[in-house]
Amino acid sequence: MMRRRTTTLLSGCTAVLLALGATACGGGPVAAGGGDKALSGQTVTVAGVWTGSEQKNFQKVLDAFSAKTGAKTQFISTGDNVSTVVGSKIEGGNAPDVVMVPQVGVLQQFARKGWLTPLSATAQRTVTADYAPVWAKYGSVDGSLYGLYFKAAHKSTVWYSPDALTQAGVKPPKTYDEMLKAGHTVADSGLAAFSVAGQDGWTLTDWFENIYLSQAGPQKYDALAAHRLKWTDASVVKALGTLGTLFKDKQLIAGGQKEALNTDFPGSVEKVFGPKPEAGMVYEGDFVAGVAHDQFGRTVGKDANFFPFPPVAGGSAPVVSGGDAAVVLKDGKNAKAGMKLLEYLATPEAAAVWAKAGGFLSPNRKVALSSYGDAVARATAKSLVGAGDSVRFDMSDQAPAAFGGTKGAGEWKLLQDFLRDPSDPKATAAALEAAAAKAYKG
């Protein structure tokens, strides 16, 4: 989310992890605008949440588009509250042409307000041919395809210190129960099993989502994400109980529940990969690698590695993702040129520009696995792209922000309360349902 944007913690170092080559499988790259400077003299404005290295790397993509088409580009950083910023710009008659939307719920909101233009036939053909159908699903509203997913995150990765697991004599686990058992063995060797970033409520939603997707299955996950299933359902109570087993075990969480509630996401990575390790493992998305490398000098694949979030109670291994979708606003001054940018972003050529700089993962199947720079990156990409339609978008990002994306409120706060006291999953489920019902109604 990232969000709540943890992707902003990625930087150029992650080229080691997620570097893509410029070569695509299955034919040559598609030239935006025909490569004939057809957009010379036009300016495309693009709004998105990115700052820092992410903004700089996306600018490289925009520069490549400019070199091909002759169009100038202007990037506007919105901060996390994309909806408010874009809405105010539309009202002020200064709408951007393209917005990089980080949440499905926001994309749906924009579409239902009538702000968006459906993807061109060219972009739609590319999505159909080169992406798993699930990405079209999350980019569509009421049967129309509005969003092109350019950048993705893999949120079903558990990162660990190979030294810590080796010292404890354990191997990466294959099931959730094995993971907890391995955690106790790690704890017996002198380190806590997990570092948990409870200060950031979004990390707790990610824990829940992986457990729920595996334990309850994709159909119930989809129903809960759309609030067609109530949070008081027995499947939710069961998943909370599974999560609570971890939360209440003082051997498993570094510093116990109280310290977890005072640990933010970067701090949780530091407890595993920093100079004074306190835990052997930390759960979060592929962006953990960027923090481990950039801030703590860890070499990804050598002294920082991951295993897939393991299946729970006989279910399938979950693959939860997040991502940024490019959309074209109707009120943009140059929406036609904006659509040409989307057609370019759909190509492996465009993905390769950012991928070379690092900190990037593409959901485009035409970006060959052999283009990734190392075994860890190939495994990450294979897991995400290979999951096909079993990928599920981060549930809290599909919810109204009042429930799934607001600090100190809704799901974030209620799961923090549950971390503090996981003794009554049924009561927590009831509180979640009350908050969800209010938010979805609004």
What would the average pLDDT be, to the nearest integer? 89
Gross morphology: globular
* Structural class designation: alpha/beta
**What Rg is obtained from the alpha carbons, in whole angstroms?**
21 Å
CATH architecture classification of the largest domain:
3-Layer(aba) Sandwich
Question: Uncertain regions: pLDDT < 50 for 5+ in a row?
Answer: 1-34
CATH class of the largest domain: Alpha Beta
Quick rundown:
InterPro entries: Bact_solute-bd_prot1 (IPR050490), SBP (IPR006059). The protein is an alpha/beta fold and 442 residues long.
Describe this structure in words.
The chain has 442 residues and is α/β, with parallel strands linked by helices. 47% of the residues lie in helices and 14% in strands. It has helices at 15-18, 52-69, 82-91, 104-112, 121-130, 133-138, 162-168, 176-188, 201-216, 218-225, 234-247, 256-261, 265-273, 288-294, 335-345, 348-357, 375-386, 395-398, 401-404, 410-420, 425-441; strands at 2-3, 43-48, 72-77, 98-101, 116-117, 140-141, 144-145, 148-154, 157-160, 192-195, 279-283, 305-308, 320-329, 392-393. Strands 2, 3, 4, 5, 8, 13 and 14 form a seven-stranded mixed sheet that branches. Strands 10-11-9-12 form a four-stranded mixed sheet. It has a two-stranded antiparallel ribbon with strand order 6-7. A hairpin with a 2-residue loop joins β6 (140-141) and β7. α9 (201-216) crosses α11 and α11 (234-247) crosses α21 (425-441). It is globular, with a radius of gyration of 21 Å. Mean pLDDT is 89; it is low at 1-34. It comes from Streptomyces tropicalis.
